[in-house]
Fold this sequence. Notes:
The structure holds 2 protein chains of 2 kinds. Chain A has 5 helices and 5 strands, in the order ββαβββαααα. Chain A is α+β, with helices and mostly antiparallel strands. Chain A folds into 2 domains: 4-80, Beta-grasp domain (Ubiquitin-like (UB roll)); 90-160, [2Fe-2S]-binding domain (DNA polymerase, domain 1, Orthogonal Bundle). Chain B has 3 domains: 7-52, Uridine Diphospho-n-acetylenolpyruvylglucosamine Reductase, domain 2; 62-172, 2-Layer Sandwich (Uridine Diphospho-n-acetylenolpyruvylglucosamine Reductase, domain 3), CATH 3.30.465.10; 193-290, 2-Layer Sandwich (Enolase-like, domain 1). Chain B has helices at 14-23, 36-41, 77-81, 84-89, 91-97, 103-106, 111-117, 123-130, 227-233, 240-248, 263-290; strands at residues 7-9, 27-30, 49-52, 62-65, 68-72, 134-139, 142-147, 152-154, 157-158, 165-172, 179-185, 195-203, 209-217, 224-225. In chain B, a hairpin with a 2-residue loop joins strand 4 and strand 5. Classes of the chains: A alpha+beta, B alpha+beta.
Amino acid sequence: MTETRKVALTVNGKRYEAEAEVRLTLADFLRHTLGLTGTHLGCEHGVCGACTVLLDGQTARSCLMLAVQAEGHAITTVEGLAPSATELSPLQEAFRDNHGLQCGFCTPGMLTTLTEFLRDNPNPTEQEVRIAISGNLCRCTGYQNIVLAALDAAKRLQAAR
Amino acid sequence: MKPPPFSYHDPRTVGDAVALLGRLDNAKLLAGGQSMMPMLNMRFVQPDHIIDLNRVDGLAYIREANGAIEIGAMTRQRDIEFSDLIRKRCPLMHEAIQHVGHRQTRNRGTIGGSLCHLDPSAELVTVAAAMDATVTVQGPNGARQIEFAAFPVAFMTPAIELNELVTAVRFPVWPDAHGYGFSEFSRRHGDFAIVSAAALLTEDSAGKITRASVTLGGIAVAPVRATEVEQALIGHAPDDKLLREACESCRKYDAIEDIHAPANYRQHLATVMSRRALEQARARLNSHAKR
Lengths: 161, 291
């Protein structure tokens, strides 16, 4: 029994419509059906945070949602954070400048998580940043440079306002 | 790790959801998915049918009525976290929810889902026990109320029938001048509590405790109301010595043992977490008294 449904949604401002098996997770739908492999999958049970996307502007773990549940919603993935193909967002710039990534596996989840966080908390303390990324595992950086990048990005975003 | 095959249903009304529950065998309800989806991905559960409640109307609200805060079962934990009404009228819940998972999971996770999943260490479960919540469930013959003390019947097993679903939870409000505290021990921020404690206090004009609620989460298969501590506090000024001595009684509760901690460690934590929660509650009583 393979039950499928048509899923129509917006991803990074672009309309998509595709057939999905009802048991398919949103993460696998983004990666395999739509070919948007920027969203990474680590643990597939909601612990590592690598697959975090924005669902109608709020972070969600895409491994803990079914693709059919995204019907009619707007998703932003890491591919949708940069303003253009040749520019990075201020947060992405800060990650690059502060060595906020090494292997890059956790980075999509870190960036989506911090995009929401800095939008809602434009002037965070270091402790608040650490709590904000407490649901995202990184095995390279020891988190230190991710925290620095987030604080730096907050400054850049404020200066741009 | 992928969910096993199932049929998917997304009803729009509570009535339709209840009808599906009654008609379909081996069906599971899907609320916020922050526990059900991992269990599906790991195939701990293999339902033939998933009934998704995310498109059911009228199950997401927070309102005050008849001396209680009523929260719809599909209200997201995030909406509870940022609710002014909860912060003002259920400050214990506002405090406790900061410990529930992470922002990404609170955006999706629901109060009804958390209570029905009934993880022994879940903060909202502990708060429901602390506040003597009442759970409203809807079945084919209408709605019924379950006192939270009778809600857990076994490990992760709520007292709801296979053809029923939780629609709302009522939390009786404590007086404005009450003190509240929540303390938990976990290995990392956002991890499940190994032991947590919730405390609620009221006092009279002489500073003697008139009402106390002390609840331990994570220690047993369901939250434990530390009635011995509550009784020891009534009628007394909550000084350090009294709190320390009263909380020692938390050591006697049967405790679960798992990969995170042995039973005697949980029993020790119960004495410490209950005291810390009460110290916070006392400090907040004092801040009311000074005003």
